[in-house]
From TrEMBL:
Residue ranges of domain Peptidoglycan binding-like in the record: 396-449
Domain Transglycosylase SLT: 82-373
Signal peptide, first to last residue: 1-30
GO molecular function: peptidoglycan lytic transglycosylase activity
Keywords of the record: Signal
Protein name (Swiss-Prot/TrEMBL): Lytic murein transglycosylase
Organism of derivation: Ancylobacter novellus (strain ATCC 8093 / DSM 506 / JCM 20403 / CCM 1077 / IAM 12100 / NBRC 12443 / NCIMB 10456)
PANTHER family to which the protein is assigned, alphabetical: LYTIC MUREIN TRANSGLYCOSYLASE (PTHR30163:SF8), MEMBRANE-BOUND LYTIC MUREIN TRANSGLYCOSYLASE B (PTHR30163)
InterPro entries membership: Lysozyme-like_dom_sf, MltB-like, MltB_2, Peptidoglycan-bd-like, PGBD-like_sf, PGBDSf, SLT_2
Protein's GO biological process: peptidoglycan catabolic process
Pfam entry (one): SLT_2
Record-annotated membrane-spanning stretches: none
Length: 455
């Protein structure tokens, strides 16, 4: 994943804080399916307890920043210059449509929240496998609450599905995972948070646009300033929009003249559906299908760049569990193994990519799709998650990358983020080492590399 915050959202509750780590601190790749997902303990109270096997997740403090804009002297300088920095953004805000009176009103008395810098740089890391992450988020409590939320807002969800041709159960699942159906939205004033990040520290360039977008929200009257509260990174609302994403995707679905994703369930669900539609959602299709692979399967085909029609997957011996019928023969999909060859397998459609447009992390999108199916009445996955799988820590993932690079493999940056280059390198190494080439950056691969390197 890039170093930018995840576009369009976040974070408020557990899932959100997991994924802002991907964007702000670089602690996992956008398509990281190894379970290296950061989960601050402070966010866990609103969610079901992790399964027993997740108890082994180990917190580790992030390494101190070496960025020149994050040194104590640089932060002190930015803090002292905060008011001048905010004032300097008036031309940019005016160009974006913020009134002169509005700019003065909403910036008067703004002060930086320097505590945000600590969150930006020292988010603790908890290593979880993809299975632990999905199991934790798709809990029986969240399934039940999702059904209740949809029943209480039946007309809204029916209208959203009809207007945007998007699966309303997926919209409800995003609501459930983002803010636990509204109970975990975050309490930071968005103007203060985005102003702080726009004028202090290493993310100033990115957050200037977010701050200006937040100013425009309150100046145009979409959301009252006192209601515009969310995460320390500036995301807000029932389904956690970043201010720029709000400007791009939010809609006035209840017709009251305001796009209020904080107080209006209709606006929040309509805006979320609009974002999915823009992300490429295709009506009448599932996000993906659990499948069972045959013995001696060619795991080199487990690559999101290898797309095949369902008929070709079937010809390779791929089946749905329990005798369920395969999807339409001409529908194309790629094979995803979020826990490697030892875990469940999935054929992912273009609608999975649409969910990824909301947040580009495979484990997140899988949790969204699975929760949607469970709220609808579907059952749990048939194939179990591996009980003995351990997620590598960020330091271990970086070590794995360095060891692969020393052997000539192109893994990209040695940053502990498992992206497509690292997965390809892992797969190539697995072939050379006689391991199943599933591309999984696992403890088995790291131990094999250590053994071959004699350390």
């Amino acid at each position: 994943m890039s170093s930018r915050p995840v576009p369009g959202r976040h974070p408020a509750g557990l899932a959100g804080l997991v994924l802002v780590c991907l964007g702000l601190a670089g602690c996992a790749g956008a398509d990281d399916i190894t379970g290296a997902l950061a989960t601050p303990a402070s966010g866990q109270s609103a969610y079901a307890a992790p399964p027993a096997r997740a108890a082994a997740a180990r917190p580790a403090a992030s390494a101190p920043s070496t960025h020149p804009d994050m040194t104590p002297s640089a932060l002190a300088r930015d803090e002292a210059n905060f008011s001048r920095c905010v004032a300097s953004l008036e031309p940019k805000a005016r160009q974006a449509g913020v009134s002169a009176a509005g700019f003065r009103r909403y910036t008067a008395g703004l002060k930086p929240d320097m505590g945000i810098m600590a969150k930006l740089e020292t988010q603790p890391e908890f290593s979880r496998t993809a299975g632990d992450y999905v199991t934790m988020l798709v809990s029986e409590t969240r399934i039940r609450k999702g059904r209740e939320a949809m029943a209480q807002n039946a007309q809204v969800f029916e209208a959203v599905g009809r207007s945007y041709s998007v699966d309303p159960y997926v919209v409800a699942a995003i609501w459930g995972i983002e803010t636990n159906y509204g109970s975990a939205r975050g309490s930071y004033p968005v103007l203060e948070a985005t102003a702080t990040l726009a004028c202090v520290g290493r993310r100033k360039a990115y957050f200037r646009d977010e701050f200006v977008a937040a100013l425009r929200i309150v100046d145009k009257g979409d959301i009252p300033e006192t209601h515009l509260r969310g995460s320390w990174a500036g995301a807000f609302g029932l389904t956690q929009f970043m201010p720029t994403a709000f400007q791009r995707d939010a809609v006035d679905f209840d017709g009251d003249g305001h796009r209020n994703v904080v107080d209006s369930v209709a606006d929040a669900m309509g805006s979320t559906a609009n974002k999915l539609k823009r992300g490429g959602w295709v009506a009448g299709r599932s996000w993906g299908y659990e499948v069972v692979l045959p013995r001696n399967f060619n795991y080199l085909l487990a690559d999101k760049h290898v797309r095949k029609p369902m008929r070709e997957w079937a010809a390779l011996g791929v089946r749905r569990p329990e005798g369920r019928p395969m999807p339409a023969a001409g529908e194309t999909a790629y094979l995803l193994l979020p826990a490697g060859a030892k875990g469940p397998a999935f054929l992912m459609t273009d609608n999975f990519k649409a969910i990824l447009s909301y947040n580009p992390a495979d484990a997140y999108a899988l949790a969204i799709g699975h929760l949607a199916d469970r709220i609808r009445g579907g059952g749990p996955f048939v194939q179990p998650w591996p009980e003995d799988q351990r997620a590598l820590s960020r330091l271990e993932r970086s070590e794995l990358q360095k060891r692969l690079a020393s052997r000539g493999y192109d893994v990209g940056p040695h940053d502990g983020a498992i992206g497509s280059k690292t997965r390809v390198a892992v797969r190539e190494y697995q072939v050379s080492a006689g391991l199943l080439p599933d591309g999984m950056a696992s403890g088995e691969v790291l131990e094999s590399l250590r053994a071959r390197d004699g350390s």
